[in-house]
Write a structure and sequence with these properties.
By secondary structure, this protein is α+β, with helices and mostly antiparallel strands. Helix content is about 60%, strand content about 15%. Strand 1 and strand 2 form a beta hairpin.
Length: about 300
Amino acid sequence: MAFPAHLLPSIFGILGNIISFCVFLAPVPTFYRIYKKKSTEGFQSVPYSVALFSCMLLLYYGYLKTENGMMIITINSIGCAIETIYIVLFLFYATKEALISTIKLLAFFNILSYGLIVGTTLLATLNGPQRVAVVGWICAVFSVCVFAAPLSIMRLVIKTKSVEYMPFSLSFFLTLCAVTWFFYGLLIKDYYVATPNVLGFIFGITQMILYMIYKDKKKRVKPTVQEQDVPVPAVVDLGEILEMYEKAGVGSGVMLEIQEKASVEPRVLIEMQENSGVEDEAGCDKKEMDRVSLDLDSEMVIISSVA
């Protein structure tokens, strides 16, 4: 028995509703993360603001249609509710700059632009089919904006080489949703629904390719500073050293020198001179000098030298 072709629009419409619902739920992990960290981090509100505006337009378009409008009305009613929740959460945890930016977007798209479109099409001298056509083209344009909105996230992925802020689930369901609604629009001959989903499919595939390219990139590791053990400077008691040498019968004449090793380690050199009783050819006494070398981080070493 042949499959009844008249059921295909309903089947694709139901599938479109189910998959679109999954698309609306795809950002839930993102907003759970925002809730846990109490911060919007690098996430942007543009996709959610534009998605809410698109849902509102499609909801209006569905009410204007005399037939095949129920599938559009059901899913976009759900979409408006979910996107509103997302935006409220975003505003609650957003920084001051992100908060101001989001409010401007909402004021421009969801209040000014939407009010202007609805008011103009209702007050204009248009019959039913003409009003549907005008609103349909407007919906087609802004449906493209919904698919193009993640372009800012794609630019961030390429710049940072990280897919942290572009969930794969959202890209996957956007692509699947575009395919389903394309066939639904084609079957009911509603090209205002079918046409933008071609571009949606292209954007979705591009996002998944970017995800596959950058998903295994290692995150940049911030350099860590480790504490090193620094030898505590030794305190040299010169009094004890002089007393030690006096007991050893070493004469006076103490000269201190501060030198450095080749490894740039400070050393304290204590030179003591002693008359050896040996005269040179000029009749002068040779002086024998004992040099005491103290390393600040090692034991004392006595070096004998003759001047």
